[in-house]
Structures are given as structure tokens and as C-alpha cells.
Amino acid sequence: MQAKTKRTVTENGDGGEDSVLATSIGNGEDLGPIVRHAFEMGRPEALLHQLKNVLKNKEVEIEELCKLHYEEFIQAVDELRGLLVNAEELKSELSSDNFRLQEVGSQLLSKLEELLESYSIKKNVTEAIKMSEVCVQVLELCVKCNTHVTEGRFYPTLNILDLIEKNFLQNIPLKALQKVIENQIPAIKLHIEKKVSSEFNEWLVHIRSTAREIGLMAIGQAASTRQRDEEMRTRQREAEEQSRSGLGDYTYTFDVEEINEDSILKFDLTPVYRAYHIHTCLGIQDQFSEYYYKNRLLQLNLDLQISSIQPFLESHQTFFAQIAGYFMVEDRVLRTAGGLLSANQVKIIWETAVAKMTFVLDEQFSRMETASHLLLIKDYVTLVGSTLTRYGYQVGPLLEVLDNSRDKYHELLLEECRQQMVDVFANDTYEQMEMKKEYEYNMNVIAFHLQNSDQIPAFPYIAPFSSTVPDCCRIVRSFIEDSVSYLSYGGRLNFYDVVKKYLDKLLIEVLNEALLKAIHSSTTDMSQAMQIAANISVLERACDLFLRQAAQHCGIPVRSIERTRASLNAKLVLKTSRDEANHALLNLVNTKLDEFMALTENINWTTEETPQNGNDYIKEVVFYLDTLMSTAQQILPMDSLYRVAIEAFEHISNSIVSAFLSDSVKRFNVNAVMGIDIDLKVIESFADDIFHSTGLSEIHKEGSLRDCLIEARQLINLILSNQPENFMNLVIRENNYSALDLKKVANICEKFKDSPDGLFGSFSSRNTKQNALKKSMDILKKRLRDFN
């Protein structure tokens, strides 16, 4: 049959294309590509013709299929008719069963409706009970909330409100009650916020008023700690000094007591904690943090305003105590308030405060004219810095201001010391101090290590210095203490070199200048100049003491200073001034000697007889020298005494030689020279006595004071020698006349000549020895002329 169908299709159209199209339709394939291809090729009619052929083929196949199964269709229809009869019977049975079932179920249905109604009532009652329970719980919570609000217990109140909002508010069955509660919750929260904000504002006022007391208490603790440290260092210095002096071994201990400052500095932060916690519960903690920060910053700005009525010297303690208390509170808030303040915020307000404080200090320091005032403020600022450092605040800028002001402080201090020393020098009589009691000796000598021996002398004790020395030592000691006080507890750990620098400045620019002014004063006489020289010598030795005192106050071991052999530049300067004082003293001595030596003009240089006891002027000279050396021995140190003696005797020697060279002496004879020889022997004998009685012979074992008169002695020896011509013999001159100048000898020998009233006028009548002397002198004169 299929073969026949295919054959029919082939006969009615294009066999190949119709078969492809029929296969595609039979397989359910998409005909879109075939249709698109037909239209693209311009043959839609051919496609339509093919589709019609396929349709005809399908109709033929259906027709043949029906003819093939005709009998089966008839049989199926007969079976359906038999089923219809059975269905009618079944329908009749179902109708009668349904009638009987409805009769029985009508009673049950009425019972079921009663049961459902009962269940509905029960459900409504149960829901009503549950609704009542919810309302009761909510109302009970509302009552508790009201009680807590009345009692000021806001945290439990907020917990209840939060509970109502989360668990009950949306489940309240009564809309009226729900609306009332919903409206009251924000009102209660607003009331709580206002209440805690009011308490916090009261705390702001209270804490600002108590911040000063907090700061003062903390600064007082810092001062006590510093005092304990100072006492410990003092004991250490005493032990070191005693050990250094060989008085024995001493030990000292100190206790370190840990102090919990939070327990001592009690101030209440409860309102802050409470307000921040409540605002956190309300979800507006950031708002409260900003409010806290702004208000505290406003308070700080008020605290940083200095009083325009009260002087800063009087108000600086309250000013800095207020600021210290402020930041101690902020530190406690930062550590304990759980995020209310950030470390960055505290850093910002601290930098603001430091900038203002440094500006105030710079401005106030620039106006101050008294060192003690500046020191007072500096000490308090360092205490404030020490206090706040323990709380982690960086106080470097404050200490830097103090360090920058150290030059001004020391200039003021130097000026005060200068005025004190001016008064000391003005009130000094330049007489040796007399101490009648041991306490005076301890106060003026032992205290400054000015003693020459460790043994207590007999009283009354006459010191080799005047009152200027201990008074100046006290001024220097006070200067060291004040300088160390200013430089200590600052930014520098080792400030010994700075103290040493200013100490040098005091000794050089103040003390030494005062000494030079006294030295060059027109009213200074010889005894005063001698006392000034002695004072300088003592002060020069005291420089080592000043250096040790500076080291001790700076905490530097004295042994290290002694080991390095450090010294003050002022010591050399004072040595120079001592030399200048000695020079001034020598000028005065020489001036006085010149007055006596001027009496040589009264000598009869052509006398016919030799003076038996010398000339009169020599007695005045010896008396003056005796007085001079006696006074100098009591006042001056041995080196200065030796120098005065040398200069005095050398000046006398020079004066004797100058007398021969004087224009007023036209000629002289041997008698006059013999008189000068007697004078010179008196001076030489006195020089020997002084050399031994003063103890100079024990120090200067080589030579003596007689050597200072060597020029005059050699001149006299030359003139009185038997063969003066030997002076031109180089060996003899080096051995016997080394101190003589050829030109001076030539000029003097020219004045030694014969005269009618003198020795040279009668040489012809004298013995051969005298003629030989004259001949030798003439030879010397001639050789000296030839030499010159």
C-alpha cells in the first residue's frame, strides 16, 4: 500500500522535490528554510504546487486507511451501545443510594454545625484571653517604665521601651492602646535625653569649677615627689663628699612608693558615663560625643584666657592648674568612657592648649625684668609638665619655651648679681676679716673651703681676705643654685656644661669686671690694692669649689670632674686680673719708693768725707719696706709676696743706678759712692732678713732677695774696685758685672772725675795706689769711649 502511495505522489507532481517536502512534513521539521529558499529563488508558485500535491497524497492515504479498518469500527460501535445500558442501571442505583445517604447525613450535619459553632466560640474566647494577656503584659511594662522614669532609672526604662518596641508594639490587639503607646515611646525617650543632658550640663559647670583643685592637688603631688628626689640627691652628695673627705663609708636608701593617682584624685564622672550610655542606647552616641567635644573645647578656650586684672605672676598658678586639671579629666574620660573621646580629639585639644600656653609664656617672659619671677613661673611650669607627662601628654613645646628663655633669665640673674657685687665692693673696707666666733669661721671660711688647714684656728682669727670674698662666694653659690634650678627638670638631661658656661660668664663679666674696676679706681691706695690682690688670689682658688658645687647640683660626680681636671676659664681670667692687681700694687709701691728715692737729690755727691751711717733717705726706705712686707706677709700669698719683694728691691736698685745717671748729678766722688755703698748694704741686710723671716727662703732655695739689688751692687763694686779697667775683660765682666749695661757704665764713669774739692783734685799728692786707681779708671773711660 505504501508503494502504491508513493507511486501516486510521483505521478501527480515533481517526484523528487515532493518526496523531500513530504518527508520534512512527516518528520515535523521546520519548513521555514524551504519557504525562504523558494522565495529567494523566485519560485513560490512551485512551492505552493508541491504543498497541494502533498495534501492530495495525505487525503488518499486517509481514505485508504478507513477502507482498510471498516469492520473494526462497526464492532466498536456495538460495544458502546451495550455500555450505555449498563450506565443507565448504575445511575438508577446511585440515585437511590444518594437519597438514603442524605436522609442519614441531614441529622449529622446539624450536629456538625453545632460542633463548628462551639469550636468558633472556643477560638474567640482563646484569642480574647491571649489578647488580654498581651495587653496586661504591655500595661505592666508601661507601669514599670513609669516607675523607672519617676525614680530616674533611665537605663531600665530604655530597656523596657526597647522590649515593647521589638516584642509587643506590633502585636498589641487594641489599636487605640497601640497608638497611645506608639506615641508615648518617643516622648519618654525625649524626656530621658533632656534629663541626662541637663545632668551632664550641670556636670560641665561643676567640673570646670573643680578642675583647678584637681590640678593643684596633682601638681602638689609632683612637687612632693620632686622634693623627695631633691632630698635623696642631697643625701647622695653628702655621702659622696664625706666619702671623698675620707670620713668613712656611708650608705643611703630611698623608698619608691607607687601611688595610684586615680584613687587620690577623685572626681565624679558618673554623669558623663550615664549620659553617654543613655545616648548610646538611644542610638545617638555620635551626637552626644560631638556635643561633649564642642562644650569641653569651649571651656578650654575660656580657661586659656589670662586675667587682665591680676598680674600673671599672681595668677599663673591658677592658670596652669586649671589647664592641668582639665586635661587630667580628659585623660580619665578617654580611658574610661568607652569611646566618648578619641585619642585624636584629645591630641587636637592638647595641641591647641600647648600653642596658647607657649604664646602666653613667650609674651609674659618678654615682659619680665626680675629673674626670680621668671624662675618662679618656670618652676611651676615644669611641675605642670611633669604632672601631665605622667598622663601621656607631650610637653616638649612648653619645655622648649623655657629653654629658649634661659639666656634672658641668666642675663637678668647676672644683672642682679652685678648689682649685689657693686654693693659688696662699695661696702668693703678692704681690711682683713676678723672672726671672733667659730660659727663666723664656719660661715665665711669652711662653707667655701677657703681654709688653709683642717684644724680650727684660735679666735679671734684674722683671715687673709676681706669681707668681699665670702660675700662674692655667697653670690656665686646663689647664682649656681638659681641657674641649676632654672635648667633642671627641663628638656635637657645633662645641663652641667650650660651651668658651667653661665658660671664662667658670671665670674668673668661680673666678678672680674668689679675687681678690675676696684683695681683701677683712683681712690684705691696701696693697702687696698694689696687686699684686692689677695682677694683675687683666694677667689682664683675658689673657682675649683664653684665648679664642684655646679657639678654636685647638676648631679655630676665630683670624682669625674676631678678626674678630667676640668676648670673654669674664669680661673685664667682671674689669674690675669691678679697679675694686673699685683701690677697696680707694684706701681703704687714703686711710686711710694720713688718719693723716698727722690731724696737722693739731697746727697752731696762731692763730699770730702764718707757718711759713717749712710744717707738719711735710706732709713725712710727701710721703714717703708718693713711696713710694706709686714702687711704683705699677712695678706698676700707667698708667690705674690715674693713678687712684691722682688719688684721693690729691683726698683730700689734701678733707682740707685738712675741716681748716678740723673742729670742733676754732674759729677761724684768716691766718698759719695762709699756712702751709697753703706746704703746698699743696709738694704741688702734688710733683704736677707725679709727673705728668711717671711719663709721665702724655704720656697725659693736658689737665690735670694739680695739678687734683686745686683745691678746697683755691681755698679758700686765696679766704681770702688782697684782695677775698674778689668770691666772690659769679657770673662771678668761676665763673672762679676753681668748685670751692668756698657752704655750706662760709660755715662756714669764720665761723671766720676777729679775735682778741686774731691779726691781727683789731689791725686798728685797721694800714694801710688790711688794713682793706679785713677789711671785704671781713665783707661776704662777711654775703652768705653772707643767701644761706644
TrEMBL record:
Residues 397-751 form the Exocyst complex subunit EXOC6/Sec15 C-terminal domain. Keywords: Coiled coil, Cytoplasm, Exocytosis, Transport. Residues 1-20, 225-244 are annotated as: Disordered. It comes from the Eukaryota. GO terms for cellular component: cytosol; exocyst; membrane. The keyword Coiled coil applies. It is found in: Cytoplasm, Cytosol. InterPro entries: EXOC6/Sec15 (IPR007225), EXOC6/Sec15_C (IPR046361), EXOC6/Sec15_C_dom1 (IPR042045), EXOC6_Sec15_N (IPR048359), EXOC6PINT-1/Sec15/Tip20_C_dom2 (IPR042044). It holds the Pfam family EXOC6_Sec15_N. Residues 226-243 have a biased composition (Basic and acidic residues). GO terms for biological process: acceptance of pollen; Golgi to plasma membrane transport; intracellular protein transport; pollen germination; pollen tube growth; vesicle tethering involved in exocytosis. Residues 50-218 form the Exocyst complex component EXOC6/Sec15 N-terminal domain. Residues 48-97 form a coiled coil. This is Exocyst complex component. It comes from Protea cynaroides.
